[in-house]
Amino acid sequence: MKPPPQPVTYVADTRGFISWRGLAVIGVVLLSLPASGAPLPETVSDFIDQHCASCHDASEKKGNLDFDALTFQAQDPINLNRWIKVFDRARSGEMPPKKRSRPESSELDRFLASLSQTLSSADQAIVAQNGRAVRRRLNRFEYENSLRDLLSLPNLSLRDSIPEDTAAYGFNKVGEALDTSHVHLSRYLAAGDNALRAAIAPRRTTPQSQTIRYHTWDQPGFIKVAGPELRKTFPLVGLDLQRDLVARGRPIDKDFARPKLAASEDPVRRDQESVAMLMSTYEPAEIQFNRFRAPVSARYRLRFSGYAIRMAPDYTAVSRASRDEPVVIYAATPPRLLRRLGGFDFGPEPTVRELDVWLQAGETIQPDAVRLVRSRPPDFKNPLATSEGMPGVAFQWLEVEGPLLDDWPGPGHRLLFGDLPFADPPSSVARVGKNPAPPRITVTSTDPETDAARLMSGFAGRAFRRPVASTVLEPYLGIVRRALSECFDFTEAMLAGYGAVLASPRFLFLDAQPGPLDGFALAERLAYFLWNSPPDPLLRSLAADGSLLRPATLRDQTERMLDDPRAQRFVEAFLDYWLDLRQIGASGPDAALYPEYQLDDHLLESMLEEPRLYFAELLRHDLGVDHLVASDFAMLNERLAAHYGISGVTGSAMRRVPLPEGSVRGGLITQAAVLKVTANGTTTSPVVRGAWIMRHILGQPPPPPPPSVPAVESDIRGATTIREQLALHRAEESCAACHRSIDPPGFALESFDVMGGWRDHYRSVGQGEPVTGIGHHGLKFTYRIGPAVDASGEMPDGRPFADIRSFKANLLADEAVLARNLVQQLTVYATGAPIRFSDRGTIEAMVRNAERHSHGVRSIIHEIVQSDLFQKK
Q1: Greater model confidence, 122 or 494
Q2: C-alpha angle with apex 581: 849 to 749, nearest 5 degrees?
Q3: Do residues 468 and 457 make contact, with C-beta atoms less than 8 angstroms apart?
């Protein structure tokens, strides 16, 4: 009897699913195919009869596979997928099993070649009629980037207002999973309207750029947490920096009243007066320069004056610091929305640091001395305090220059309304329909019909990413005309038409028909691949004249785009899903077992930056896929280097650092971010980490566990190790086969804790020698030393490894496996479709071609862009 239908596709593994929409499309195709497939070649049927049928017939049905009932039906996707599984298991050597008589290699090769041809022919028949992928919509990150670029609003935040996208085959770019509901359409209309209104100039007159200095003494965000009780900040009044009294120490002025400062009218002295941070800023009392609010959304230049200090244990004197202190600057929006702007270090000498940033209207500035203790005062201890004192950072002032405008109104406003005159908003609140809306400027037109047609043509052409015919524009102009007839002003009427454009399929969906992509579709696919955003004017012009279709031009544009800062969008979007970095904040380290990691945002941010900078370095220098496993360098700053036990790295800036000989770091798989997303915050599991390595690095995802088999949980009491528990688990015949492949990489990574720190022993809350101290969050802790970690194991082919170093060496023995997986991952991401059986030949050709360049990551991207898989749908 045939197995029941289940959601599957023609992919090279069992990762994904196919949506009802995808099945409907396939159903249309299947109607045009023969009612039944051709019989299996005799070579295939004879091989099965001789080597497979005795275990997989109607009476045995091992693995729920019955060859007596399994005929070959080329038009049935479930049937085809089962035959692909048969092919893969035979090719891997898993079947027929070794305990039975194995076929001669020549016989196996003939079987595989014949079955491969049969499966490829069936798959190609469907691809020829339907293409590789269904038409897909923009995911919410692409949607946000598209509006940012279209309206020239670099920090427009919309993604959280759109429903979260479903991932399939590892990514949020696969059309089968990106459905569109009435909820999506409602959110698109609202988000599009918000974006359009954000692009409109808030007033007619150009905002004047000013340079204003905000002294910390005059900031409620600094002073409200000052003093011995809260101990977050301390005023340092009247320190004459020219005579460097800081170096000799000075009593703290206990008078925190503002009138005291007002008596000092000397501007030099005012600039020298400081407020020192002794704790990292943390709710409920954030330290902010909150007398400043960005007046308009624009670019600003921020200058910070400050220095590192050491405060006496009794808070009575301050002295010169013995080291630099890292500082991170955030843009803050009430009540608690933070956006990282950048960072720098303050040394013992007063220094001015500068950041060039984009601020949204209404944002203020929140500095954070990120190495300092973070807790809720007053019930805490400072883990950095010694008999000589505690570290701190003294801020003197923030100077804001801006807004820095290239022109006014901005390019987004001009896209919407060109050079039409406009007036300042009225003083009273305007009304849009029945709903009150914030006051806005009023654009006037003496010829609304002509102006609307001209403006809509330019806007729609940019939004739709290709030229548009007048017939395409007519529905949107009809909305404008109707709004004008209902007494809406010209501004609101145009916004209604523009909003319809931004909610239309031509904007929300990537345009492609089955077959070769035209120039505009190719430009679109290339831009959303390498920039995660729409094509720029140069790409559109090359699409318009057809030159983008030439291989040399396409290669040149790929190079240009990889060198563009917007390629960082690709790096982040690709790694967020390939490496699961988007889940880095899904769990936190357990407070009882890992107190040193508590509330350490600087470590977490540094961990997230490392794989992004590392992958960008591989791209920049076309480094090979062996660097995914091991390398002689890492991207580190002082905090991350300390986490890794690497000395000689100072400062908060991330940079390329050579690794000492024999380091366990280097490559992606031992980076802290990867090790964190494969742990749950309390324990690590060789099964979880091993399955992750198989799926994400080797491209060999294990099948899901049988539903009747319970998960193996680590024992945090310290009574048994996870290895001992897994030994019992592998005694089950149904578990042993998969765990031979899953467990080895997981065992090799057991030397790393839930945050990627090195460990020789597990930690326990039950048995073992106690360890006590004060955590990063300022609270006392006690945990216990658990059993020793054993990171040794045996590869599925029998090769042993003693630890992570020798495990990496084993992985590097077959570089083509790493290259093949990266080609597949990037192809799914770039094309929005899974790897089909008939794609395998093209994938192998790309792997072979990239070998000429040592399987360099940049070379692999060029191979994908030049391939038929990329240039055809």
Answers
A1: 494
A2: 80
A3: yes
Strand 364-369 to 317-320 pairing:
unpaired
Q: Is the pLDDT of residue 409 over 70?
A: yes
The answer to whether 17 and 168 have CB atoms below 8 angstroms apart is yes
Which tokens in the block code for residue 121? 């022919």
Lowest mean pLDDT among 125-134, 173-182, 344-353: 125-134
Alpha-carbon distance 273 to 644, whole Å? Answer: 38
> For position 582, what pLDDT does the model report?
96
Taking CA atoms, 780 is separated from 372, 595, 771, 775, 777, in Å, by 16, 9, 11, 6, 9
The tokens describing 367, both together, are 């500095």
Pick from 174, 106, 82: nearest CA to 136: 174
| CA Rg value for the chain | 31
CA–CA dist 834, 832 (Å, integer): 7
Secondary structure of residue 251 in the 3-state scheme: strand
Identify the helix (H) or strand (E) that includes residue 398: strand 390-404
Band of residue 713 on the pLDDT scale cut at 50, 70, 90: low
Mode of pairing for the β-strands spanning 430-432 and 761-764: unpaired
Helix 182-199 crosses helix 140-151 at what angle (to 10 degrees)?
20
Tokens of 233: 């900040």
Q: Residues near 784 by Cβ (< 8 Å), separated by ≥ 6?
A: 718, 763, 764, 765, 766, 767, 768, 769, 770, 771
Contact 789, 758 (CB under 8 A): no
* Per-residue pLDDT at 725: 67
Q: Could you tell me the two tokens for 296? A: 């308009």
The pair of three-digit structure tokens given for residue 130, joined into one six-digit string? 């339907």
Question: What does the buried/exposed string (b/e) look like for 523-549 if buried means 16 or more CB atoms within 10 Å of the residue's CB?
Answer: bbbbbbbbbbbbbbeebbebbeeeebb
Burial of 823 (0-12, 13-18, 19+ CB in 10 A): buried
DSSP letter for 99, please: T
Do 358 and 154 contact (CB within 8 A), yes or no?
yes
* Range with lowest mean pLDDT among 225-239, 529-543, 550-564, 616-630: 225-239
What would the pLDDT profile of 436-482 be if each residue is shown by its tens digit?
455 678 999 999 999 999 999 999 999 999 999 999 999 999 999 99
Distances in whole angstroms, Cα of residue 203 to Cα of each of 489, 545, 775: 17, 40, 51
CA distance 9 to 23: 9
Beta bridge partners of 364: 332
Is residue 457 within a helix (H) or strand (E), and if so which, with residue range? helix 448-464
Count of CB atoms situated within 10 Å of the CB of 728? 11
**Considering Cα of 759, then 760, then 762, then 767, what sign does the dihedral take?**
negative
User: 815-831 vs 519-530: helix axis angle to the nearest 10?
Assistant: 120
pLDDT at res. 233: 57
Which secondary structure element, helix H or strand E, spans residue 809, and what is its range?
Answer: helix 804-812
Tokens of 315: 């808070």
Has residue 323 got a pLDDT over 90?
A: yes
Question: Is beta strand 780-788 parallel, antiparallel or unpaired with respect to 800-801?
Answer: unpaired
Of 350, 354, 378, the closest CA to residue 278 belongs to 378
**Distance in angstroms (rounded) separating the CA atoms of residues 271 and 218:** 12
Q: What is the H or E stretch that residue 781 is in?
A: strand 780-788
- In the block, tokens 């009809």 appear at 478
- pLDDT tens, position by position, 196-228: 999 999 999 999 999 999 998 888 888 765 544
pLDDT at residue number 18: 32
What would the mean pLDDT of 351-380 be, rounded to a whole number?
89
State the residue for tokens 């300092």.
372
Mean pLDDT of all residues belonging to the chain: 85
Beta bridge partners of 658: 633
- Tell me the two tokens of residue 298: 């624009």
Q: Residue written as tokens 């007002």?
A: 262
Percent of the chain with pLDDT over 70: 84
Residue 125 pLDDT more than 90?
Answer: no
Q: Given a cut of 70, is residue 719 above it in pLDDT? A: no
